[in-house]
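user: can you give me the structure for this one chain? tokens are fine.
assistant: on it. calling the predictor now.
[tool input]
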Amino acid sequence: MIETWIGSSANRLVASDQLARALGPDTVDTLQQQTEMDRETLLSQLAQALPEVVHTLTPQGRVPGEAERRGW
């Protein structure tokens, strides 16, 4: 799945429950506290945004080198 986010093909969506399992309960709890969002809203919004964020941060289908990342 993540390969589609990095590559040039269409980004595949991730399900909220898959994202919750990948992040783990501690991370989800921390994000809920920091954002003051309920669990379902948080996971839904992350599931929608994450593929595009990863796609944008991996130009030409590769992870940018350290020198490239310094400009972020």
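assistant: here you go. The mean pLDDT is 84. The helical segments are 2-6, 16-23, 25-35, 39-57, 66-69.
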